[in-house]
């Protein structure tokens, strides 16, 4: 039997003393016990660590496998109010879906009153609405049925930051694409061109979905295991040979297709910002793959084959 | 074995020497930079004073120093680089915001909009900037030379209390004066329809810039006040953890 004392990481005050803790108890169980004596700190907002300035211990870590004596001393840090990833994703993706449609249907107070509830005379505008809406419906369905999240929650303030980004950009793009004075791609870039961009967009959407499904299948339900992703029978996953995070590659492709389809500078800007953020994430993921797996395929790049 | 230990000691000494040379070069550059900037802003101060004494009016004063202030204020971008590579221990964001707001005012307002160059508010912020920069750069220079007179330290951490708000007033009044001109000429703006399917209204952009002073100015001001308490009174301030 072990004893566990939990101190505040900043003030070093003794917050909690748990006696008679099973040696095979997990950090997750200890967090539940701490929650009982401090109801305001639900487990998701607890960061338990061996050192006040060290890394957080994982919920799966077992007490007796940690470098502690008969009485384990842990330091607690409040991570702040938390919100579940699923909630954040659902909120941040529903916004663009609804907002774009408000502009598409030219709801009052956006454009001049004579345009209220009119529709654009350019067929590419209808196509763009379908693509944009399809994209976000796909994301919502993936959040509900495909993705398996490693972390349950994130800090509450992230939802404001993320929603501002998605909703703000959606409004900015939708305003111009659905504007009465919108200029569709010119005579040079004719119907063939628009159809090619549409095909490219669809190709990348299917690719992105294929990768999400392949990643989900790596991980049994309810687990948090991490494995190296490999190409499967689905040709869209063969890109794993060259890239660590092909979901981001396909996402970039989709938005490039959408940019060329609409020829709208705000869309190009959104694509660029998204690309920069996804590259940062891809590089981080690639680095952690390399650190965790010594036999990681050397030919792979983080997001763009051979280049980035 | 003994020679192995010696090699190790020699390596460490070489490393230490390399570090010392690097830090000597850095100090030399920073000292030169701060002396040059102090001199530059002193030249500006004297040019402004001489113009006013000779001509008795502030009309035409901006034009007479336009090239000099464009040069020295733009060169201050280098300071953002200093923070980014870590040779100066200040936040990149704080420095970036301050330098960018200056550059915006010089290049995108005063330099581009001739009609407001003779406004009194322009003189106000020019005088404030000059006094602030001379104090700031000479403070850094003396600090690098390890010979800081108390009155320079006092000036650096006390004058801003009045100069900062006065500067903000000068800047805001200048932007406000520029609004009718911008609206009338439609400068820097782009309207629909166009092939990029985007529009930009410099007039509303300026209004947003003016509004952004509301959240930004207090943050910068209180940052300076906290620095002042720390430097002048040695108070230890516990910063919020991230």
Description:
The complex is a heterodimer of chains A (308) and B (242). In chain A, 48% of the residues lie in helices and 11% in strands. Chain A has 308 residues and is of the alpha+beta class. In chain A, the strands form two sheets. In chain A, strands 2-1-4-3 form a four-stranded mixed sheet, with helices on one face. In chain A, strands 5-6 form a two-stranded antiparallel ribbon. In chain A, helix 5 packs antiparallel against helix 6 (246-262). The longest helix of chain A is centred in the last third of the chain and has 28 residues, at 265-292. Chain B is mostly helical and 242 residues long. Chain B has one domain (2-233). Chain B has helices spanning 2-55, 61-75, 77-85, 92-110, 120-144, 150-158, 160-185, 202-233. In chain B, helix 2 runs antiparallel to helix 4 and helix 3 (77-85) packs antiparallel against helix 4. The N and C termini of chain B lie far apart (48 Å). The interface between A and B is small, with 13 and 9 residues.
In short, what is this structure?
The complex is a heterodimer of chains A (308) and B (242). With 308 residues, chain A is of the alpha+beta class.
